[in-house]
Each structure stands twice: as structure tokens, then as C-alpha cells.
Structure to design on (819 residues):
């Protein structure tokens, strides 16, 4: 019979789109009947018909369908509508369900279907939108014998194979009992299986091992291929052997899931119980007056903070207003949080709390000498400063500016001042600060507003008279957000900081008791109005003798202690230490010296571990093993016609500055400058050239020398920018030496500004320049007469062995140089 003949014989049956199939409306009864192979079957099939020999196929992807199952199926309407219409036109309404696994609809063909599937009866068929839903009632396994249609709708001829079983066999009964016990064990753990068990008990006898095994497989969560293997196994005993492990695995998973759920529920119940108990406790305490809510706690906390403070009246009035506002706000409102933070800052400041100053000069000297070697003049200035405070009663309201090159100890001196006074110390760097709100705070209207650094300092030190260090004040920046240097004027002006106003607090604070210590490398970049409010103390660079003492007393012991190395394990001789200072660390400060000493410690530690020696000795002979070749060689004072040594000051300290003048040719008159000179230094060079040109005869030189000479004036180290007027005297001497053909044969250095009329004007940085001369073993210098006072104020150890000539006019310089 063809597919068309098969449908034509049954075309009087209609397919119901939104209704139940016709025979689904008529009650089907369970009946006993026989297939063509003679086997008796118990299942819900039409009483008047046998299972069909030809059925349409429906592929499913998730898991196989078992004869013992009754469950809804949902399929795609567009693809399987025609198949379901033809099934609806059959009298038996039976379709074959086959598991095809992960095959996609596009790639699915008849070869992807397994041989064994399940014939199901279609009930309560409905179509909605793009889906068709129906209840599938599993009937019997089928085996495909021949394909009648290999394209959808798939139509095949099938047989219903026997399922060999001996229900009386002891092994079969044992397996059946094990499966029944497994199902019973699974039910209490996962109640979801209870409904399926009821369907099973209503349809099958527990003594039928085949349906029992299929039902047990159907309720597991095993993967599709495993279940298809069970479905395709016809002997019941072998099938039971495969199903029992799947059932045990399902029981184990369900037990684990149950344990996890119990643990989670126990934790949740415990937290809920704790939460309810706490809430009940709060209510009980509130009723008895024992406890208060969060808002009352905050108000009490802020009031308790004020008990030990002496708050000014205007500040107390503001605090009272804010506390009244806080007491009526809801705790969850944003304004409550803003007000609470504001009160937290206001009540955390040390209103009226000060520390007692230790105005004890011997104690202060001891602290300064302990922490610092050298710097005697600086220490004396600090002692004078403290002595003045002894008579005045306090040292507050002062602003000290420590100026000097990097690494000379400016920050550590500020800390020593605080320790000598017995005050709290707070340091913050203003280098690169571009926002004035860092100083004066943000207004409270902004999100994330904070007070300025000064208010934060008060909160941390908890006193009104700390020592506050403003580091790197010469490196303040400016931007569109404001000018922090201008904001500092109010902070550092003794006439204004009595009533300092922070934008966040919006109440007046008294900064007059604070001792401000500022540090800077140079004064050039500090605004004049700000510099005018500070008392300057200069820290010049160290000479070699001072560096030696600092290294022995401070740097070397600190490095050994930091690395936990016993002093006796590394022996650094004084001669080697001097060589480190002269050959590797000639800067004004001691940072580079500390780095070189740290290199020695690291190399010595490696030797102690690898060579297993008790002691590492560092001497002049083996110093290069630790530090390599020296960075600096002994500087030779340049000599010859037109060569003179000048003295210069930089932000890194003093330096010697050799200047060379040479005659290039005699073709015509000319003057050339090189050495990366600044505008001021170029002007000094032109003045020196003009002055020398006009006074050649006066100083015993050929008056016509420059008429036909092209002169080149060079300042070595051309990559280094150089500027300033203090080389005028030196340049004039170099040009005069060239014209007189007379070289300076002795170590001699000079500094001073020269005018066109031969006046020698004063210059700055005398201390640094004298230190630079001593460092280069130059002990004869020429200074302007106006700087005599600066030289006489130098400590004796710097003046020792020095020969100094003071000049009012250039004639005085020439007399010293050329005799």
C-alpha cells in the first residue's frame, strides 16, 4: 500500500488544530489484545485496532521517550504541521518518537534516526503561535524495517520487537526489587518524582519488570545517548543491569543537592532568626529606654566628643544648629549623610587642645646634634629662634623657610625642630599642587567634598599647635582650578591666619599657634608676596669633611641596621669612605653618597653568602670591585693664556666654572660666545668684552690687540644651561689674560658682577661658592667687597686656610691676578 493510498483510506478523519483529537475525546480503555507476532500487550490503545505497521516519525533532541512515560511535547509548527495533520487523519493517532541527539534540523536526514524508538499516542493536541503542543503517551518500542518517505513527513514501516523477560527468574526479581527500592529512596529526596510514580502505578503492575525498568530510566537525568542505549536494549535483564547504575547515580546527586539545600536553608534560617531577634531586642530596649536608634546615637557621639574641648562660641553655635538639623532628618536621606560627615569633621578637630612646648635649649641642641652633623650656622639660627620663644612664651605664628639643594637635610631638620619642641609633626608636599581646594577645602555643595590639608592635619595630630611642614613650596603649580600659592598667603600671614576660613568647614580657625616650616631648593619660583612672609634659613651643601662625619655617624649605621647586617661583618675604612665621597658623590647633598654606600652593602652581602667569609673588607684598593670606576676624577685647574676659574651657584649647590678665551684668527675683529649661556650671562660677556677693549693700555696690554683679532669666549660643559651676572669679573680676566699673553699659574677662583665703568658688584651664594672652591682644592678666591660681610659670617671651618681678596673695582682684581 502506498503513502497516498494509506492516507486516502483514512481521509474521513479530521486533524484538530485547537481541539482534542477525535478519539482523545472518547475515553480509551485499557484492554488486552495481541499484535501480529502473537504477544499479548497491556497498554492504552484503541480497543478496536492493533498498533499500526506504518507510522510517521517525529525526531526529538533532548532525550529519548520511553514506553512508560506520559508527558507533554512541544514541537515547531512550521516544520511538523504537515506531519501532525497526517497523524490526525489516522484512526489510531499514533506517531513514532525517535531520539536523534544533537543533529540540527538542516543537517538531519533519515540516516540520523536510530532503529529503535517509541510509539506514542497523541492526546490533547493544540497549536499556539509557532508551536504545537500535545500530550504523548508511550505505548511500545518499535523497530524501523523500511523507509517509505525519507523526507518530512517521514513515514516508515515498523515492527514491535519482543522484550525477552522471565519475570520468575530470581536475578530478574532481585534487580526489580533493587530498582523499586531505589525509586522509593529517591522519592523522599526529590518529591518532584512523586507525580510520575502515581502515573506509573495507575498504568502498570509493579510485577512487570519491563515497564518498571523503563520508568526508572525515564525519571533519571542521564544524558540522551545513555538513555537511548537503554531504550535500544530489548532483553529486560540486560536493560535492568544498565538502568540500576543510572538510578544509583541519580540518588547520589539528589542526596548531594538535598544536603546543599539543607545547608543553605539552615544558614538562611539562622540569619533570619538573628535578624528578627536583633530587631525584637531593639524594640524592647527602645521601649525600656535602654537603647536609642542610629540617629540618637550619632547625636550623642558628637556631643560626647565636645565634652573635653573648648569650642569657640561661633563654632558651637554652628554645631548646635547642625545637631538640631540632624535630629529631624531621616537616616536614609542623602542630606543626613552630608550633615553627619560635616559634624564628624567639626567635632573631630582639637578645639582648644594644645601641647606644652619644651623650650629647653640644651635639650634642643642635643636633638639637633644627634640628628645632624655640620650645619652649625643653621642649628644656631634654630636655637636663637627657640630662645626668642622662651621669652615670648611660645614659638607659634612663625614661618621658617629652609632653602638649599636636594639632599642636605631640610625635611629631617623640620622633624628635629618638632622633636626639640615636643610638638606633633605633620608633613605634606605642595610640589605640583594645582588646586587651591587642596589648601582651603571644597565647598560642601560638591559631591565628595573634603576639607583642606590643614584641617586634615589638625584632625590627625589632635592639637592646635603642631609643626606643619610644607615641602617643596618652590614647586607649586597653577591651573584653571586656582592658584594654590595665593591660597597659602592667608595660611602663612600672621595677620590673617588667626581667622583662617576653610571652605568645607565654613567656620573660622586659629592657625596662629602653628609653627610652619617650609622647604625649597631655590627662591626664584616662589612668589614675592609669599616669600615676604617667611623667615629664610639657608642650608648650603656639605664639604667633604662634613660628608665623612655624616656617612660614619648616620648613613652607614642606618644601612647596616636596615639590612640586619652586623657592623663587624663589613669593614669600610675611612680612606675608602673618603674615596667614595671624592670619586662617586660630589653633589651638595648626601643622597648620592647614601646610594653608593647602599651599593657597597649589597655587593658585600653577596660576597658573605657566596664566598662564605666572616668579614668583607672594603678599602681603597678594592673599592672599584664594589662601585666600578670613579665617576669623578681629581679636577685639574685649567691653566694657560685666557683660562680663568670662576665660581657659580646653582640649585644643586656651588660649582667651579672654568672660562676660556682664545684668539681664532687675525683677519678681522669679532667676538663669539658658546657654552649654552643665558641672556644675562651673554650681557655680562659683552660688558666684559667692551670693558677690556677700552682699558687694554691701562692694564699693560697691546691697545690694538682686539682690532684685528677674532676672539672666541667659551664656558665648558656646553650641554648645561648657565646664566647669571656673577661671571663678569671672570670673563674680563680671561680676555685680559689673552691680550697680555699672561697665564694664571696658581689655583685661583673669582666671582663678581662687573659694570662698564669697572665697578665690582656683589653676588649671591657666597657660602656655596666657597665650598665649591674648597672641594676643588682652591684656597685663594676673589670676592666683591660688598660680600665681605657674607664671608665673615661663614663658620670658621670654611674660612680656615682660605686667602680671600675683596675688590671694589676691577683694578683690585687685576692687581691680585697679574701682580
Amino acid at each position: 500500500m502506498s503513502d497516498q493510498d494509506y492516507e486516502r483510506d483514512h481521509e474521513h478523519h479530521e486533524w484538530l488544530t485547537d481541539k482534542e483529537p477525535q478519539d482523545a475525546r472518547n475515553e480509551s480503555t485499557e484492554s488486552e489484545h495481541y499484535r501480529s507476532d502473537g504477544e499479548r500487550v497491556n497498554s492504552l490503545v484503541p480497543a478496536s485496532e492493533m498498533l499500526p505497521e506504518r507510522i510517521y516519525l517525529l525526531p526529538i533532541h533532548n532525550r529519548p521517550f520511553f514506553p512508560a512515560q506520559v508527558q507533554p511535547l512541544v514541537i515547531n509548527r512550521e516544520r511538523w504541521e504537515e506531519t501532525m495533520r497526517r497523524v490526525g487523519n489516522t484512526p489510531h493517532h499514533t506517531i513514532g518518537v525517535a531520539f536523534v541527539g544533537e543533529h540540527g534540523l538542516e543537517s538531519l536526514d533519515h540516516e540520523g534516526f536510530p532503529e529503535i524508538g517509541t510509539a506514542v499516542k497523541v492526546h490533547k493536541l493544540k497549536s499556539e503561535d509557532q508551536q504545537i503542543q500535545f500530550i504523548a503517551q508511550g505505548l511500545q518500542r518499535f523497530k524501523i524495517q523500511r523507509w517509505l518517505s525519507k523526507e518530512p513527513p517521514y513515514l516508515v514501516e515498523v515492527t514491535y520487537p519482543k522484550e525477552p523477560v522471565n519475570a520468575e527468574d530470581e536475578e530478574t526479581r532481585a534487580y526489580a526489587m533493587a530498582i523499586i527500592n531505589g525509586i522509593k529512596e529517591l522519592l523522599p529526596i526529590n518529591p518532584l518524582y512523586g507525580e510520575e510514580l502515581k502515573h506509573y502505578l495507575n498504568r502498570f503492575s509493579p510485577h512487570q519488570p519491563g515497564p518498571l525498568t523503563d520508568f526508572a530510566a525515564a525519571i533519571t537525568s542521564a544524558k540522551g545517548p545513555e538513555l537511548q542505549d537503554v531504550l535500544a536494549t530489548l532483553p529486560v535483564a540486560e536493560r535492568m543491569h544498565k538502568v540500576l547504575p543510572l538510578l544509583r547515580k541519580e540518588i547520589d546527586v539528589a542526596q548531594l543537592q538535598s544536603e546543599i539545600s539543607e545547608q543553605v536553608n539552615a544558614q538562611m534560617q539562622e540569619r533570619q532568626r538573628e535578624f528578627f531577634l536583633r530587631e525584637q531586642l531593639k524594640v524592647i530596649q527602645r521601649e525600656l529606654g535602654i537603647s536609642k536608634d542610629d540617629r540618637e546615637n550619632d547625636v550623642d557621639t558628637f556631643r560626647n566628643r565636645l565634652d573635653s574641648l573648648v569650642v569657640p562660641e561661633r563654632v558651637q553655635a554652628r554645631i548646635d544648629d547642625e545637631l538640631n538639623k540632624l535630629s529631624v532628618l531621616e537616616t536614609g536621606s542623602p542630606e543626613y549623610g552630608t550633615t553627619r560627615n560635616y559634624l564628624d569633621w567639626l567635632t573631630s578637630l582639637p578645639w582648644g587642645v594644645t601641647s606644652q612646648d619644651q623650650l629647653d635649649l640644651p635639650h634642643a641642641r642635643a636633638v639637633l646634634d644627634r640628628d645632624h652633623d655640620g650645619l652649625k650656622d643653621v642649628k644656631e639660627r634654630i636655637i636663637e629662634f627657640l630662645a626668642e620663644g622662651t621669652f615670648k612664651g611660645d614659638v607659634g605664628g612663625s614661618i621658617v623657610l629652609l632653602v638649599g639643594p636636594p639632599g642636605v637635610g631640610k625635611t629631617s631638620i623640620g622633624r628635629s625642630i618638632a622633636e626639640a619642641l615636643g610638638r606633633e609633626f605633620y608633613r605634606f608636599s605642595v610640589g605640583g599642587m594645582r588646586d587651591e581646594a587642596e589648601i582651603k577645602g571644597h565647598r560642601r555643595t560638591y559631591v565628595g567634598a573634603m576639607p583642606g590639608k590643614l584641617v586634615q592635619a589638625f584632625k590627625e595630630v589632635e592639637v592646635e599647635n603642631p609643626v606643619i611642614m610644607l615641602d617643596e613650596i618652590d614647586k607649586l603649580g597653577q591651573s584653571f582650578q586656582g592658584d594654590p600659592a595665593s591660597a597659602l598667603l592667608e595660611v602663612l600671614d600672621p595677620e590673617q591666619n588667626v581667622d583662617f576660613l576653610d571652605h568645607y568647614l565654613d567656620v573660622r580657625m586659629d592657625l596662629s599657634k602653628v609653627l610652619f616650616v617650609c622647604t625649597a631648593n631655590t627662591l626664584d619660583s616662589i612668589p614675592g608676596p609669599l616669600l615676604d612672609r617667611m623667615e629664610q634659613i639657608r642650608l648650603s651643601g656639605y664639604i667633604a669633611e662634613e660628608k665623612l662625619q655624616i656617612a660614619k655617624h648616620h648613613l652607614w649605621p642606618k644601612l647596616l641596621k636596615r639590612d640586619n647586617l652586623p657592623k663587624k661583618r663589613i669593614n669600610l675604612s675611612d680612606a675608602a669612605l673618603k674615596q667614595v665621597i671624592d670619586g662617586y658623590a660630589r653633589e651638595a647633598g648626601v643622597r648620592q653618597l647614601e646610594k653608593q654606600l647602599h651599593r657597597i652593602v649589597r655587593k658585600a652581602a653577596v660576597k658573605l653568602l657566596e664566598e662564605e667569609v666572616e668579614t668583607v673588607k672594603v678599602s681603597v684598593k678594592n673599592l672599584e670591585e664594589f662601585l666600578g670606576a670613579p665617576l669623578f676624577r681629581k679636577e685639574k685647574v685649567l691653566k694657560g693664556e685666557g683660562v680663568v676659574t670662576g665660581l657659580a651657584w646653582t640649585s644643586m649647590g656651588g660649582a667651579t666654572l672654568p672660562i676660556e678665551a682664545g684668539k681664532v684668527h687675525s683677519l678681522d675683529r669679532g667676538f663669539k660666545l658658546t657654552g649654552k649661556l643665558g641672556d644675562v650671562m651673554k650681557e655680562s660677556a659683552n660688558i666684559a668684552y667692551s670693558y677690556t677693549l677700552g682699558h687694554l693700555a691701562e692694564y699693560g696690554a697691546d691697545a690694538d690687540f682686539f682690532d684685528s683679532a677674532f676672539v672666541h669666549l667659551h664656558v665648558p660643559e656646553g650641554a648645561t644651561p648657565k646664566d647669571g651676572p656673577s661671571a663678569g669679573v671672570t670673563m674680563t680676566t680671561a680676555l685680559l689674560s689673552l691680550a697680555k699673553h699672561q697665564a694664571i699659574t696658581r689655583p685661583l677662583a673669582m666671582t663678581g658682577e662687573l659694570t662698564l665703568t669697572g665697578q665690582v658688584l656683589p653676588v649671591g651664594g657666597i657660602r656655596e661658592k666657597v665650598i665649591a672652591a674648597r672641594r676643588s682644592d682652591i684656597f685663594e678666591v676673589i670676592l666683591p667687597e660688598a660680600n665681605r660681610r657674607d664671608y665673615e659670617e661663614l663658620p670658621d671651618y670654611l674660612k680656615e686656610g682660605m686667602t680671600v681678596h675683596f675688590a671694589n673695582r676691577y683694578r683690585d682684581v687685576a692687581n691680585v691676578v697679574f701682580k
Summary: Residues 1-49 have pLDDT under 50 and may be disordered. The radius of gyration is 51 Å.
